[in-house]
Amino acid sequence: MEDSISMKELFGIIRKRWMLIALFTFVMGALSAVVSYFLLTPKYEASTQILVNQKDTNYQLDTTQMRGNIELINTYSVIIKSAAILEKVIEKLELNQTVEQLEQNISVSSQSESQVFSLTVQDSKPGRAVEIVNQISETFQQEIKGIMNVDNVNILAKAELKENPAPISPNPRMNIAVGIVLGLLMGVGLVFLLEYLDNSLHTASDVEAYLGLPVLGSIQKMSKQKVKKSSTIQKMGVEVIESQIKV
Hints:
Blueprint: H1 2-16, H2 18-39, E1 44-52, H3 63-79, H4 83-93, H5 99-104, E2 106-110, E3 116-123, H6 126-148, E4 153-157, H7 172-197, H8 204-211, H9 224-246
Antiparallel strand pairs: 1-3, 1-4, 2-3
Helix pairs in contact: 2-7, 4-6
């Protein structure tokens, strides 16, 4: 029985201050929408695929060589983001970025037991992201011959600019949903905090719980209109009595 009463009390607290919860939910959702649409810079992504495979006129499959190519991908992931490659890319495309800034927007990923790895670049402009990722791939293919004295890099697929590119971030719908949930939690938390700090007595049960004594009677709360109406009736009654006395 206590559990059911406590649940009723919790729902009663929420119902009593539901407008505050709704206000927090609306404000946080609206704030998330403003930040997502107007303050955050959209990020676009472009990718290329690079094959690591030694050029050989012998058509027999060499598993040892394949294993070596796969292990080389980890080394190539470091080289492709090094200053030796990125400085040339910045110079060729005349980018207003440092090597460190450009490196933060580059990611290299590969699947297990595969000689193919993907090179991905993020940028605030979709066309520039395509130019950068293609230039990095070409520069890496050219420079790796001198760096490691090998010729085993081939570009499988270059990045192309789509007709209507969509940004990968931010995600306004997700951000708004998170903002609404966060606002709801903050509103509920504030409501319970205010209720905890409120030491005033509101109901007869509060008085009984605080004093430990039964309530014998209570005065009903009246609205201003009822008070005015009651006072008017009382005045009319007094006037009637006075008129009868005079008679």
